[in-house]
TrEMBL record:
Residues 449-476 form a coiled coil. Its EC number is 2.7.11.1. Residues 66-87 have a biased composition (Basic residues). This is non-specific serine/threonine protein kinase. Residues 289-324 form the UVR domain. Belongs to the protein kinase superfamily. STE Ser/Thr protein kinase family. STE20 subfamily.
């Protein structure tokens, strides 16, 4: 097809163009596509934009489901037959199937390269080396279905007779031939070609058709969306970023779960420590209360036994002393009787006349002396008995008071031991609580460090994946550019060679050998230029790869620096919290010791007060002692001292 098209003379093509010009129906092509489509008297391409414009109407806001409402059915029972579109018009040389037409155009494009872009961007090459627009292309009438750029591209490929060309280009006065093309132009051409080809072949159209039945009528809604490589890459990056965020959220949930478990464990430890302290305190108090109770019971039993022993001993001593005194009184009575007998014997020795008077006098004086001595003797015995009983009673009381004092000292010693044990337990509880809080704080920060390290490992893994993905994308892009460059160079070389040959035909002043030599030199220069382009591309790719690797390394270093700063901040925060915890413990211990001094002072005052009360009690008991301890019906009894704190 291409050979037939190129071998036809231009006047034959012009006659064909004139034959097709009155046709009303026109066919157009869309850049980047080769589809033909008829719309309302003219053919429109099925481009992405056209398909996006041909979307069905949006659903009405009043509908409940938010879907497009189908049109109401007419009253006629028979449905209206679907109108078929008119067949596509094809040129005489085009094949029967429209797909073959696309293949033919693809063949033309593959043979000649992307001419429509190149010819639209490149001006014509003149004889003096200047680039100028060909006047022959400006004078040619455009095709009805094609634009001026398409016409110029086709016209530039057609062979021209030399006589017409010489007549048309007779006004160019320069005879110098140009063999070199500008490097800037070639670079600009290559850039424009690559950009346009990228923009042409990178876009894709995504169609989605939804079919549903509403009121017995099948309704289909088709939505189309243009997806480019950038959008696909952005969507892929967003998907990967969402996956990374999902992983981070899962890691954060695990962190919250671990922290909740640790907090529950720490609360249980605090409760257990407080419960154990209360149990130890109650056990210690119960032990000392039991000891005090046993001491009081033992004291009571001892005092009662001592009182019983003292009463028995006092009764026995009283009986013994009374029996001795009775014996002494009997001996004293015997002595008085003997003295009375002596008085009678003395009186009997006197004369009988004097006996009666002297006996009466002597017996009167004897009776007086007897009464006096007997009274003295009884008084002495009573005094002796009283002194002995008082002595025994005082000894018993002294013994009881000494026992009471010893019991009180033992009781106060137990009270002091109990208070000291309570104070030691309180202080030990403060230290133990401080150590527990300190250990719990260390456990919390250990968990935070562990979670932070896991998070840092996850971030580093994500960063490595990101860097690897960027390097792979760069490699893929460079590989695509490297694979696309030979095609672009071949197409561009063909186009430049065609343009150069055409310029030689237009401006030819020498022989055919000179033209061949110029063509050979031009091809060598093209090879050098293409090689330079390949080297430039390789250097550019190497620089891009080095920059990408450096950027990845800098990203990794920056991430590591941020992670190290986070770790240092966490360690500093932990040190500060531990320091504040130690300071708070020192403050609590200092306040507790300050409150301990008045407690000790109050306890000592209470114990001394009890001692004084005991001493006063025993002094009062001595003063309230019975004045006549020798009476047989009176027994001395000492009541034990009872502590008011234990009753």
């Amino acid at each position: 097809m291409l050979s037939t098209f190129l071998l036809n003379p231009p006047w034959r093509m012009q006659s064909l163009w004139r034959r097709w010009s009155p046709i009303k129906t026109s066919l157009t092509t869309w850049p980047g596509t080769s589809c033909w489509m008829r719309t309302s008297g003219s053919e429109t391409p099925t481009s992405p934009r056209a398909r996006r414009r041909s979307r069905p109407p949006a659903p009405t806001p009043g509908s409940r489901t938010g879907r497009a409402r189908p049109p109401r059915r007419r009253a006629s029972p028979r449905p209206r037959p679907r109108q078929r579109s008119r067949p596509l018009w094809r040129p005489p040389w085009a094949p029967t199937q429209p797909q073959r037409s696309r293949t033919w155009r693809a063949r033309v494009r593959a043979r000649t390269g992307p001419v429509e872009e190149i010819t639209g961007a490149l001006p014509h090459l003149g004889l003096n080396g200047n680039l100028k627009k060909s006047p022959e292309l400006e004078e040619h009438p455009p095709m009805p279905w094609e634009g001026p750029e398409r016409l110029e591209s086709l016209e530039s490929l057609l062979p021209r007779p030399k006589r017409k060309v010489s007549q048309r280009y007779s006004d160019t006065g320069s005879t110098s031939d140009s063999l070199n093309l500008s490097g800037d132009m070639s670079t600009r051409e290559m850039g424009s070609i690559s950009v346009r080809q990228d923009s042409r072949f990178s876009n894709k159209t995504l169609k989605r058709t939804r079919k549903f039945v509403v009121d017995g009528v099948e309704v289909s809604v088709t939505t189309s969306k243009i997806i480019g490589d950038d959008e696909k890459k952005d969507e892929e990056m967003r998907f990967l970023r969402r996956q990374e965020l999902r992983d981070l959220r899962l890691l954060q949930k695990e962190e919250h779960r671990a922290q909740a478990l640790l907090n529950a464990k720490l609360d249980v430890q605090k409760d257990q420590m407080q419960r154990r302290f209360d149990q130890d305190m109650n056990a210690k108090k119960k032990y000392y209360d039991t000891e005090l109770e046993n001491l009081e019971k033992h004291q009571k039993q001892t005092i009662e036994k001592m009182e019983t022993d003292h009463a028995v001993h006092l009764r026995d001593e009283t009986k013994r002393i009374r029996s001795e005194q009775e014996k002494e009184h009997t001996r004293f009575q015997e002595q008085l009787k003997n003295r009375k007998k002596e008085v009678k014997r003395e009186v009997e020795k006197m004369p009988r006349s004097q006996r009666k008077e002297s006996l009466k006098q002597r017996m009167g004086s004897f009776q007086q002396m007897k009464q006096t001595e007997e009274q003295k003797f009884l008084a002495a015995q009573k005094e002796k008995l009283d002194s002995l009983l008082k002595k025994i009673t005082s000894e018993n009381k002294r013994e009881i008071s000494e026992t009471e004092r010893q019991c009180l000292e033992k009781k106060q010693h137990l009270i002091r031991e109990r208070e000291a044990a309570i104070w030691d337990m309180e202080e030990h509880n403060l230290h133990e609580r401080h150590q527990l809080l300190k250990q719990q704080l260390k456990d919390q920060y250990f968990l935070q460090r562990h979670q932070l390290l896991k998070k840092h490992e996850k971030e580093q893994e994500q960063m490595q994946c990101y860097n690897q993905r960027m390097v792979e994308l760069l490699k893929v892009r460079q590989q695509q550019e490297k694979g696309r460059l030979p095609k672009i160079q071949r197409s561009e070389g063909k186009t430049r060679m065609v343009m150069f040959k055409k310029s030689l035909r237009i401006n030819s002043t020498g022989s055919a050998s000179e033209d061949r030599e110029k063509i050979k030199q031009f091809s060598q220069q093209e090879e050098k230029r293409q090689k330079a382009e390949r080297l430039h591309q390789q250097h550019k790719h190497d620089n891009q790869m080095r920059e990408m690797v450096g950027q990845c390394d800098s990203n990794v270093r920056e991430l590591q620096q941020l992670q190290n700063e986070k770790c240092h901040l966490l360690i500093e925060n932990e040190t500060q919290r531990l320091k504040s915890l130690d300071e708070m413990h020192s403050q609590q211990l200092r306040e507790w010791r300050e409150l301990l001094k008045p407690r000790k002072k109050t306890l000592e005052e209470e114990l001394n007060q009890k001692k004084r009360e005991q001493e006063v009690f025993f002094k009062m008991s001595e003063e309230s002692e019975c004045l006549n301890p020798s009476s047989p019906n009176k027994l001395t009894k000492f009541l034990p001292y009872t502590d008011s704190s234990t009753t």
